[in-house]
Amino acid sequence: TAWFYINRDQMREWVFFTDRRTFDERYKLVQQRGIEGFCSWVLGEEDPAVWEVLPNVGR
Q: Does some domain include residue 45?
């Protein structure tokens, strides 16, 4: 998972986000394990390149 942190008001804030590479790795794991479905949090805020990973079925 891609991530970064910032220091603000004497606190460290972590931000984790799903980029294409991370999504691709997760999707491959789903396929390898025979899992029939999965979800991605905050649909619409993802890296647009994640859609290149998914097949065209059901779009």
A: yes
